[in-house]
Amino acid sequence: MNPTVAIVGAGPAGLAAAAALTARGVRDIAVFDRDDTVGGLPRYCGHLGFGWEYSHRLEKGSAFIRRLIGETDLSRAALYPRTTVLEMAPGPVLRVVGPETGLREIRPKAVLVATGVRERPRAARLVPGARPERGVLTTGALQQMETRGIPMPGPRAVVIGSEHVAFSVLLTARHCGLKIVAMAEPGNRVLSLAVARPIARVVFGVPVFLNTEIEEIQGRATVEAIVLRTPEGLRRIPCDCVIFSGSFVPDAPLSEEAGLAIDPRTGGPVIDQFMRTSQPGVFAAGNLLRPVESSGVAACEGARAGACIAAFLAGHLDGTQAASVFGLGEGVRYLVPQRWAMDAVDLRDARPLRPSLRVSSDMEAARVTLATDGAVVWQGRRRRLLRERRIAINLDALPSGRPAAPRVDLVA
After folding, report:
1. 235 and 263 part of one domain
2. Which of 201, 230, 268, 278 could disulfide-link to 289, CB 3.0 to 4.6 Å?
3. Per the structure, how many domains does the chain have?
């Protein structure tokens, strides 16, 4: 076994990359995933809302994964669930172990790392209170329990967080017999769409408390109640589950141990617009790059990475990452990609680049500017910029050649 391309991670990004590679005639692709089946988190989600950016359809998570697998020529790409990539070294060289592969070293011509994100558990969030044996979950754990038919600790749950995934819990709860009795958000606004709060209240009968922190979790064998510190004072809510949502971090230990350059702002590998990392022949895509975009965006990035890898294998794209680094002004939380190259590569049939730009805090009236050599080459319209929302930026406005010190700023 010595594949041409090794893909680490079989979520939306990894599967879309495999589909893009096989569509371009690349053979001997190995897709590894340590879980018991491929598909990543979406395969556990039986509600709509997946894949829009990729397929322009709102599908159930499981249906979206079936779509990606169906687009892949499995005579050219092999899927290896229950298989872990233990190490990655320059070359690239991988050590993998699994029931079909055994323990072996492989030397593919290219590697795509697409290991996704994980949710920080309760301990990492420094939540006070008792430590009950059952009833403290993340959204990912809840979705797996629902799909696998694992009984819930009880019928009542409180959700902590208010981004898109938190509100998807309302849909998951309907499938597994849970009643969400409250949602709590530490900030002063809902991080999902503004309409989500009234929908939660009117359609699902769930109150959403803003500016609210956890005072303590109560219970011994299982959760009995949660005490919230609200603007009106302490509020004790009897419940059987506390579901923590959001607080995602890239699942980057493999990338870090392999010595890939990591962006301290995102926690994921540094890439250029061709999805190249700091190690030649190693590419990265999906939510490993930053926390967090939708499954459709992750799949688009995977498809773009597949096209870039195919161009690399054909000799049309160099495997070395670009040297030009974006400068980020005050208030810019992060930008992906972090580097920019002016390689003359024809990727017209590839998925377009979808930059991920975030601000550090909400800004009521501001615009994004893109400059090089001190001259502004693009600027967005003045509008409200919200933390945790994708901010539009047109990196293609950078001039041809090798622009000096490309820079992104926020102008109030």
Report:
1. no
2. 268
3. 2
Q: Where in 76-124 does DSSP place strands (E)?
A: 77-80, 84-89, 93-98, 102-106, 110-113, 117-119
Instruction: Specify whether the CB–CB gap between 10 and 79 falls below 8 A.
Output: yes
| Amino acid letter for position 83 | T
pLDDT value at 48 more than 90 = no
Residue 92, SS3 per DSSP = coil
Q: What is the pLDDT of residue 345?
A: 74
244: amino acid identity, one letter: F
Name the pTM for this structure: 0.93
Which residues on neighbouring strands pair with residue 229, listed in sequence order?
213, 234
Kindly tell me the burial class for residue 234, based on how many C-beta atoms sit within 10 Å of its own C-beta (0-12, 13-18, 19 or more).
exposed
The CA–CA distances, whole Å, from 205 to 128, 138, 202 equal 28, 22, 5
What CA–CA distances, in Å, run from 215 to 126, 188, 190, 276?
11, 17, 20, 44
Task: Quote the distance between the C-alpha of residue 192 and its chain's center.
Answer: 15
Residue 288 tokens read as 């490993």
Q: How far apart are CA 230 and CA 191, in angstroms?
A: 18
User: What pLDDT does residue 309 have?
Assistant: 97
Residue at which a domain ends, from 221, 246, 271: 246
DSSP 144: H
Tell me which residue range forms the domain holding 193.
Answer: 123-246
pLDDT in tens, 53-102: 999 998 999 999 999 999 999 999 999 999 999 999 999 999 999 999 99
Q: How confident is the model at residue 35 (pLDDT cuts 50, 70, 90)?
A: very high
Both 260 and 352 in a single domain? yes
Burial of 310-342, coded b for 16+ CB within 10 Å and e otherwise, reads bbbbeeebebebbebebebeeebbbbbbbbbbe
Statement to judge: residues 113 and 160 lie in one domain: no
* CATH number of the domain bearing residue 42: 3.50.50.60
Instruction: Give the mean model confidence (pLDDT) for residues 216-229.
Output: 95
The 3-class secondary structure across 17-67, one letter per residue, is HHHHHHHCCCCCEEEECCCCCCCCHHHHCCCEEECHHHHCCCEEHHHHHHH
User: Comparing C-alpha atoms, which of 23, 10, 165 is closest to residue 79?
Assistant: 10
Across the range 388-403, mean pLDDT stands at 84
Token digits of residue 404? 């000096």
